[in-house]
Amino acid sequence: xKQMQAMFKQLGIKTRDINAEKVIxxxxxxxxxxxxxxxxxxxxKGVKTFQISGEIEVKTVxxxxxxFVANQTGASEEDAKKALExxxxxxxxxxxxxxxx
Length: 101
Known about the structure:
This protein is an alpha+beta fold. The chain has 2 domains: about 1-60, Single Sheet (Ubiquitin Ligase Nedd4, Chain: W); about 65-100, Helicase, Ruva Protein, domain 3, CATH 1.10.8. It is built from 4 helices and 4 strands; from the N terminus they run αββββααα. Strands 1, 2, 3 and 4 form a 4-stranded antiparallel β-sheet that branches. The termini are far apart. The model has no long low-confidence stretch (mean pLDDT about 90).
């Protein structure tokens, strides 16, 4: 490990570990959640990249779930989708939207 760090230093590469509980990557097809992540920031001449590893969980919001939550709560499909994305669970999304009535 020390040899690798010395080599990085010679090449002008700096690394540091970042402590975090969770990393959430939001995409148009759903969220990728990394629980208990190990994150390393790599700075190579001002260009920063991140290496992330951990327990991967993928959460997707289906059109069927959005329509169901919207029908159960009377909310718009946009609000239903947002609640599903925030909670990750149909029942919690319904409760969240019903609390705002």
